[in-house]
Amino acid sequence: MHQGRSFFQDRCSVLARWPSSFTGEVRCSCPSTLGGIGNRFRLIAVVLGMLWIVLRFPAGAAADPAADFSTKWTRITDTVFCGARPETTADFKRVFDAGCVTVVSVDALPSDESLAQQFDLRRVHIPIGYAGASSKALSMLQLLATETNEPIFVHCHHGQHRGPAMAVMLAMARGQLTHPEAIEVLHQCGTSLAMTRLWDQVSSFVPGQVDGSIDLMSESPVTPFVSAMTMLDAAARESPSISLAQRRVLLEEGYREAIRFSPKNEGLKSELRAGLREIQQSRSLSTQAVRQRCVSCHASFRH
Hints:
The protein is about 50% helix and about 5% strand. It is α/β, with parallel strands linked by helices. Strands 1-2-3-6-4-5 form a six-stranded mixed beta sheet. It is globular, with a radius of gyration of 23 Å.
């Protein structure tokens, strides 16, 4: 399996492999005084270099993790690939060059129609939430796995949680991946442990019979905003099965998706942004406070 890596990850790996002598004694052929000065300059240079990397590429600083399509590209098997949402001609060309004939979106939005047509790529839309795939979505996945053995590219929005989960289940449905291998792919893709339902579905996935009443669609009728709000509502409910940190991730993702797909209503967007800031700043994530914000927002904007 091959997976794209971010520039920050690559640089951290390089630093991790640097000799430990950079932080200790550095021998040189210069006189002792000049050598000591040289050592200090080397140490300062290394520290400044590390500081620059951290400041230039801070963890989680990117506004949109899907901004760099290439860093999310993952080859799972010879015929199953996954990654972030392809947005440009170059992104779709990479999908085409990998031999893929079908592009599957498990995001709330389907894949771009005009760009897919440029490369004669078939579009399939199987939207799922962070709470996992519905029985209908899994049936559609099973149908997709059995109707063709040709290469398929699966994407969500960020290429980190939903896309990898559905892609490994597609590979398992084709008999190309074991459960331990599927779990390893999720780890490699950085799938958050907060997405407990996705992990559970992958761990317990068993290929089933194809439902004859199910059809594959290029665009699903589900609205992205409704999907995002459903996820946010579920995350707002306290559950003993997830930790505080996991719940925070789910709430933050829910707010971000709701903001991303909210109707053209600045008042609503402002309210959602305020909710996101509140979650980010809160230490306790009081269920009562979170639910009260939902109730207040619904009173103002739900019609």
